[in-house]
Design a protein that fits this description.
This protein has four helices and 20 strands. With 326 residues, the chain is mostly beta strands. It folds into two domains: 1-163, Jelly Rolls (Sandwich), CATH 2.60.120.730; 168-239 and 274-326, Jelly Rolls (Sandwich).
């Protein structure tokens, strides 16, 4: 029987915009995941902060092993990734818009495809080797007085044979049309999270990532061609219903409302927090059957056809083998 141990690493510590990075040593025992709960207050009456406003009190979340990043991700991207991977469906809690109302939201940094998995997570390490680094944002939007709670989930007798690595690849193409982004080589991929600044909205159908192809040694493979709408659909398959419902709106019927005003049917807002994200799935069953192998390749890349030459972020979710594991 697996033995778990949940520990508070940092408890309700306040921070301000522009503060220095918050650094903590993580436990030496086998580690499944780290939960980062952000809390604060709404700053403007009649303006409800979005989950991204809440998560964006931090600008970056990193896990360092002996000084090198094994995880480096923007908090908003992590909020989407934890839905895509099924780690945690975390909507905000206790939020209202009357001003100075309390809110909280939890981000999960997972070392495993499935939290609590006995065979997957970060293995035991020496004191000080594994660190969590949280960088406060330069400014906050619609929120104020944030604080942070960090908890770790250890599997004390875990026999981990593999763990996840995900670090950001940021790019801005120099022109529209096709261009290639090289990806790390050597480890299999569980999936790839994609962010594009521009997405179809209203009558405009342009996108930062209109088409995406997977190339291995310069040959199309596994996903020879897919388009932005499909990438969005792949992500939405994993998104919790609660998260999606937060993005719908109603419009008042025409004319001055009287009494119980009629409203039109629900519509999906262009401001959806997931509207800029897509997902390439390589592990639909979470059993490794469909992993994208990169070992032995001379080049693995994405060929991206862009309608607009603006910022993109790419996160390959790599599955690393623990040295010496059976």
């Amino acid at each position: 029987m697996a033995i778990r141990n949940r520990t508070i690493l940092r408890q309700e510590v306040a921070f301000a915009a522009g503060d220095a990075a918050i650094v903590d040593n993580l436990p030496v025992n086998p580690l499944s995941f780290v939960d980062i709960t952000l809390r604060g207050a709404t700053s403007v009456a009649n303006t409800l902060p979005t989950p991204f406003n809440m998560a964006s009190v931090l600008s970056r979340i990193e896990v360092l092993f002996r000084g090198s990043s094994i995880i480096s991700i923007a908090p908003n991207d992590l909020l989407v990734l934890q839905d895509a991977m099924g780690w945690l469906n975390s909507g905000p809690g206790n939020s209202s818009d009357t001003g100075l109302d309390r809110w909280f939201i939890t981000l999960r940094v997972s070392f495993s495809r499935m939290p609590f998995w006995f065979n997957e997570g970060f293995p035991a390490s020496r004191a000080g080797e594994l660190q969590l680094r949280l960088t406060p944002a330069a400014a906050f939007v619609n929120v104020t007085t944030p604080s942070i709670l960090v908890e770790t989930e250890e599997i004390l007798d875990g026999e981990f044979t593999r763990f996840l690595k995900y670090t950001q690849l940021a790019r801005t193409p120099t022109a529209t049309g096709e261009s290639d982004q090289d990806l790390p080589i050597g480890n299999p991929y569980c999936g790839i999270l994609l962010f594009g600044t521009t997405f179809p909205t209203s009558t405009t159908v342009t996108a930062s990532l209109r088409e995406v192809r997977v190339l291995m040694d310069n040959q199309e493979a596994y996903i020879p061609r897919t388009r932005w709408d499909s990438l969005r659909a792949q992500l939405r398959m994993h998104v919790s219903h609660g998260s999606e419902l937060m993005n719908h709106v109603h419009r008042l019927a025409a004319g001055a409302p009287a009494g119980d005003a009629l409203v039109e049917a629900a519509q999906w807002s262009n401001g959806s927090q997931y509207a800029q994200y897509g997902w390439l799935e390589f592990d639909p069953l979470r059993d490794g059957q469909y992993l994208l192998p990169t070992a032995g390749r001379s080049r693995v890349s994405l060929r991206i056809n862009a309608d607009v030459a603006d910022a993109q972020r790419i996160y390959p979710i790599e599955l690393l083998t623990v040295p010496g594991a059976a």
